[in-house]
Design brief:
Radius of gyration: 24 Å
Distance between the termini: 63 Å
Largest sheet: 5 strands, mixed
């Protein structure tokens, strides 16, 4: 992008100031955002088309109700889930994400998420393993949002792990009064160049586009972690060497006091 401003003495132009701005990154971000909007439109249209189509058939042939209703409900839940992710993303990007405060047991959430994603892992031929710790790590925050973050991490790992690979879930407490939920996979890995940007909104979209999805999973996870005064750390040895993503949250106050008294 070129900017030019003349320098005049009286009515005579004697020089000019010329400035150049490299807008490559801005254009790339804009292209990624436009592609994201295109894909999210498609993702929303798919369940909506199914709902409308089956509802019309049900209207014309009520006898298909036992077959139609489960499909309609499944599509409606899919549509609802996509909308919720978009609403939460919007709140994260505008700094308006609020959280409820309650005691959250990470092992309970990890068990629920592992159970939820076992069918998806089995269909893809991926071994999903949950290794519960001896202790039961707890934090304080919004159970629904933290569970969503766990689900995003597990779903992401399964998507990027080929058949025959493994996805392993672990929870721990740390010496500095924090709790962790870690997802380790043996999948496609992350390059050194990608690592600094994978949690930025839309920047990781092209990487996820090849396997489907709307490319906002890690942005949601990081936003939820930050809303709980936590953080997310991602590491990978490189392409085809898997990746590890850890969500780190403050330990629940009651648990923190108990550990210090012990």
């Amino acid at each position: 992008l070129l900017f030019m401003a003349p320098i005049a003495v009286g009515k005579e132009s004697i020089a000019a100031v010329i400035a150049f701005q490299d807008i490559t990154l801005i254009k790339e971000a804009d292209q990624a955002k436009n592609q994201f909007l295109k894909v999210i439109s498609h993702e929303l249209r798919t369940p909506l088309t199914s709902i409308i189509g089956w509802a019309k058939m049900l209207q014309e042939a009520p006898e298909i109700m036992p077959e139609a209703v489960p499909i309609i409900l499944q599509s409606a839940h899919q549509f609802e889930g996509l909308l919720e992710r978009m609403i939460i993303l919007s709140r994260i990007l505008t700094g308006k994400l609020t959280t409820r405060q309650e005691t959250v047991n990470l092992c309970t959430l990890a068990t629920e998420v592992e159970t939820e994603f076992q069918p998806a892992a089995a269909r893809k031929g991926v071994i999903l393993t949950w290794l519960p710790p001896a202790e039961s790590p707890q934090t304080e925050g919004d159970t629904h949002l933290i569970r969503m973050a766990f689900s995003e991490l597990v779903d992401n790992a399964i998507n990027f792990t080929p058949a025959g690979g493994r996805v392993t879930l672990t929870c721990h407490t740390t010496p500095d009064d924090r709790v962790t939920f870690t997802v380790t996979d043996t999948g496609r890995g992350i390059t050194t160049e990608e690592l600094p940007n994978i949690m930025k909104p839309f920047s990781q979209f092209r990487r996820e586009e090849a396997i489907g999805g709307i490319g906002i999973g890690l942005t949601l996870v990081q936003g939820i972690a930050h809303a709980h005064h936590g953080e997310v750390v991602a590491t990978s040895p490189g392409i085809d060497q898997g990746a590890t993503v850890t969500m780190i949250l403050p330990m629940a106050l009651a648990e923190r006091h108990d550990s210090k008294e012990a």
